[in-house]
Amino acid sequence: MNAETGLDRPHVFLPAEEDAAGPPLLLLHGTGGNEYDLLPLRDHVSPGAAVLSVRGAVLENGMPRFFCRISEGVFDEDDLRRRADDLAEFVVTASAAYGIEERSLVAVGFSNGANIASALLLQRPGLLAAGVLLAAMVPYAEPPAADLTGTLVIISNGDRDPMIESGVTRQLVGQLRERGAEVVELPHPGGHQIHPAVLPEVRRIVAGVPLPTTRSAE
Fold first, then answer.
1. pTM over 0.90, yes/no
2. I need a surface site. Which of 31, 108, 113, 196 has the fewest CB within 10 A?
3. Structural domain of 16
4. DSSP one-letter string for 34-100
5. Do the domain assignments include residue 87?
6. Quick check: 111 and 63 in contact, CB under 8 A?
7. What is the C-alpha separation between 194 and 156, in angstroms, rounded?
8. How far is the C-alpha of 81 from the C-alpha of 189, rounded, in Å?
9. What positions carry a catalytic annotation?
10. What H or E segment, with its residue span, contains residue 183?
11. Any domain includes 14
């Protein structure tokens, strides 16, 4: 983590293993987590793939988050926009430093991490190849007019999640589809969690995300 290279933000990078076939992952933790929390998802979502896992830059009562909120479920959208831009710039810098192809990362976010992943998709279209949103809410009441045509987004929310009513999920799905995203819903019977039952299907779908072709030297 070196300030001179723009990599001073706490993060973990895992290079791809030789037999990796799936796309690289951008892992985004939930409130109170850190850059190590979601590393086990690599084996379940894109085995052996390169991983960039980033810590949220906001502290709420000592708990890392990716952006500020006014109260539970009420986001500070001005701060969210700034933090999404900051995260996007870090992803661009880190991708260049670690040799990750542009537009190849699949963001996998849980809870607060899922919400910043949604913000990245809507605010910086083209940055990510796809998104996997686990326990996700609606990031923006009035989202940007992004063109997400051809962008795959998986949303997996729990039927018994006390923090996310079914209408919230429908609103998020609608916002993304209205902007052209290909949204796959993988609901589960649990609460505010990453449900293990959906991970095999997430892995199957993510395996089909096309990797960018490296352009030959001109």
1. yes
2. 196
3. 3-207
4. -TTTTTTHHHHHSTT--EEEE--SEEETTEEESS-EEETTEE-HHHHHHHHHHHHHHHHHHHHHHTP
5. yes
6. no
7. 8
8. 32
9. 111, 161, 192
10. strand 182-185
11. yes
Note the residue count of the chain: 218
Please list the ranges in the chain whose pLDDT falls under 70: 1-5, 213-218
Establish if 217 belongs to a structural domain: no
At residue 5, the 3 state secondary structure works out as: helix
Examine residue 167 and state whether it is found in any structural domain, yes or no: yes
CA-based nearest residue to 104, from 217, 216, 214: 214
- What is the reported pLDDT for 1? 47
| Lookup: tokens for 96 | 């260049």
- Cα–Cα distance for residue pair 163/176, rounded to 1 Å: 20
Specify the number of domains making up the chain. 1
For the chain, first and last CA: distance in Å? 33
